Amino acid sequence: MPEQPLDSSPRILGIDPGSRITGFGVIDLCQGKPRYVASGCIRTTDVALEQRLAQIYAGLSEVVGLHRPMCVAIERVFMAKNADSALKLGQARGTALVCMANLGFAVNEYSPRQIKQAVTGQGGADKTQVQHMVTAILRLSATPQADAADALAIALTDGYARSGLVAATTSQRSRRKNGRWRL
User: Which residues are designated catalytic?
Assistant: First the structure.
């Protein structure tokens, strides 16, 4: 597990998975208040899907090595416009989960509705509203790209859950309940 920042505040990595663009956002939670660290996008080249997944894995590994988060959160899968898009999104998300598991992280998941509710106050908010609120909450001088803003919103949601401001979700670690293994 990576080292914790010197001020003992948890550093949270939010991941917005996508097969073409995977957003990432890193915040520190200082005395319950979020502070911007970094954000950006891992843009895959126009190659076969397995190569794009490898690029996502390598990009996320690099982000973790550079920013050393203590906690990781990811958006839960939602229904896409078509089955092919849903499968590609699921594969990108799975790549991110495997990358984080290989690096020793438990990953918290949040639905798009939970994220929008936590950041904007409305579960049905659009991307522009999320970008605006992320910019305001983190006092950014410029509006981040949509995928990076979504990733920052995921990190903020996890930070709020850790502060008890929103309902926490379960991690991806396997749990044994009633004699049966389940995720």
Answer: 16, 75, 147
- Contact status, residue 23 vs residue 147, Cβ threshold 8 Å: yes
Along the 183 residues of the chain, how does pLDDT read in single tens digits?
444 444 567 999 999 999 999 999 999 999 889 999 999 999 999 899 999 999 999 999 999 999 999 999 999 976 667 888 888 889 999 999 999 999 999 999 999 999 999 999 998 899 999 999 999 999 999 999 999 999 999 999 999 998 876 655 444 433 333 444 333
Q: Which amino acid is at 159?
A: G
What's the pTM value of the predicted model, to 2 decimals? 0.85
Q: Render the burial of 5-42: b for 16+ CB within 10 Å, e for the rest.
A: beeebbbbbbbbbbbebbbbbbbbbeeeebbbbebbbb
